[in-house]
Amino acid sequence: MDRSMLLVSLCEWGLKILAGRNGRAYERSNKLDELFYLINEETQCMIIQYLGLSVDEFNEAISKNAGYFRESGGYVRDIPSMDLSFLEKLLYIIASLVLEEEDYSKVKKLLLGND
After folding, report:
1. Which of 2, 33, 65, 72 has the fewest CB atoms within 10 Å, measured from its CB?
2. Is 81 exposed, middle or buried, given 0-12, 13-18 or 19+ CB atoms closer than 10 A?
């Protein structure tokens, strides 16, 4: 699995956890934009604010990076329009919301390679 697919997958799983905490069923969606709107509005606003984007900028970015999952299964590879920087920032924010502070610090160190 390459970096882009890993980022999309981790963001997808994190959004599913947040949607589940909100009591919302995500059925079989793999698209980040659809999953994002299943989380509560307060958390949506927090994520957008932490990213430093307007709502319109966020909607454009998450739609562009919604996911590259084929209906037949498996991720589409090498999508030139995918914004890895946006996905990385989104992942860090989702991870901070999903994980307890101590666990988040450990995961961040692992991902960044810092000791």
Report:
1. 72
2. exposed
Q: Strand, helix or coil at 69?
A: strand
- Over the stretch 15-69, which tens digit does the pLDDT of each residue have? 988 888 877 776 677 788 889 999 999 999 999 999 999 999 999 999 888 766 5
Q: How far apart are CA 88 and CA 26, in angstroms?
A: 22
Which domain covers residue 26, as residue numbers? 3-112
For the cut 70, the answer to whether the pLDDT of residue 72 exceeds it is no
Half-sphere exposure (Cβ direction) of 19: Cα atoms closer than 13 Å = 21
Q: pLDDT at position 23, please?
A: 75
| Direct distance between the N- and C-terminal alpha carbons of the chain, in angstroms, rounded to an integer | 25
Number of domains in the chain: 1
* Cβ atoms of 47 and 90 closer than 8 Å: yes
Q: What is the mean pLDDT of residues 75-89?
A: 73
